[in-house]
Fold:
Amino acid sequence: MLERIHCENIKEYSRNQLNVLCDELRNVIYSTVMQCGGHLASNLGAVESTLALFYTFDFPKDKIVFDVGHQCYAYKLLSGRYERFGTLRQKDGISGFPKRNESEYDSYDTGHAGTSVSAALGFAKARDLLGEDHAVIAYIGDGSFNNGLIYEALNSLKILGTKILIVLNDNGMSISPTVGGMHDILSNTENAKRVESIRPLEQFGLQYMGVRNGNDLEEMLDSFAEAKEKLKEGSVLLHIATKKGKGYAFSEEHPTNTHGVPPVGTPAQKEYSTVLGETLCRLASKNGKISVVSAAMTEALGLSDFFEKYPERAFDVGICEEHASVLCASMAAGGLKPYYAIYSTFLQRAFDEIIHDVCSMDLPVTFCIDRAGISGADGETHQGVFDLSYLSLSPNLAIFSPKDTEEFQRALLWSETYPHPLAIRYPRAGKVVFGKSEPIELGKWEYLEKAKKTKLTVLATGERSLLIAMKVLQAVQEQGLTFDVVNARFVKPLDEELLGGLKGRIVTIEDNVLQGGFGSAVNTYAIEHGLGVTVKNFAYRDEFIVQGSVAELQKEYGVSCEEIEKYIVAALTVNE
Structure:
């Protein structure tokens, strides 16, 4: 049925046919995610509500903003992308998130939580000022509803004097189970009490419709028809209760494990998050000041055991990244040793708090930054390629990029007594243990390869960059050439003693954009200190990086073994 569906003819289907279509949507979503990877549980739970939206409203004339976008797969299938859906999250394929450049049905790009209500208000005001006539909808989960940006947007609702529909998809989950005061309100098992608890939101200028069954298609069709009528009078909040993972027993029972799943057959790898959890538990067993903060990412960051063993020192604040940073700063000021574990792409949201609250007071907060560098299939909004740049500019903050999981563990142990702000950034999976490890000392690098005579040194930071450097070294040595390889594990401060003694050519490699990153710092140092060396940087170009595998994207955006080998061979053979 799906291959014949266009949004225009959905309104011609009977309710029985629409129920059959829900089953087909789930089957296609499940089979595609098993093949391509993606967000499974959240999309399975949103099928009925999405189909009812299509039946009731007129997309793309009407506008919808999916908060985060984890739940947009049914929407993509119903908006003419069935034929390409098998390319989900693949390079040059369908994105796992809404993308304006992919379809006219995607009105706004999303990927981070909490933006939908603000964006919907912007669309509504544009509509009003341009004299247009269409509905604007924000579709948001209860996890995102914890984010402070939502309340900033609601605070503007009356001021802006416009009309939007907010669909609150309440399934009790974000990635991890939803936490916080709003979760307690939404999760009240007595429906009447839950309605009364949330009704005060009407004071922002909303007509609250109560709680409806979001997995009952009949109820959804009737509810959206009612909401459409109410929109004529003012903004509406439709609260729907859904089951994350609906339709597949394992996903219903394990919504956290099936929030984001890899393709079937993906080999298991040692993850840095596992090392993080194990090491923090080890530290906490002997040091009562060790505490951990997470922003709705407990399991994904390897912190489940810590939360179980040390619940009084473990804090999941929900999708509130800025608040988490200030919480860490004040706990450190109060005498604790907090570790804030977070994905690189989400830490961007706390940029001001890192500078203003943590670094300006020189507080001993350790940021454990997962998914740093290219993250792959989630695309532009999730690539962690900016952290070296936005962190490097802040005084007092040291930045460490381990060469493997073993060095990561030693960095965590070293951090226990480090009395200043520290950021440790790393990719998801660890593939290699290099073996050699010199003691960690602030701002000191180590040689992984030291030739007797060479005129070129590669400074590589982080596991991926060092893997590339060592692969290129092997290829170059087979041609009778060689160069030095340095594990530039501290991106800030630089190892000025080692760097100042280099001659000839320097090549930098990093899993980050060039602007403001490691290579830029080396360039600046070389110029300011008159080193008289030639520096060549390999980092990502000044572009947003799309979805694809890590290897594909490294090659496309400027960091590949082939290009680096070509440059180094030419540099080593010139004038010979």
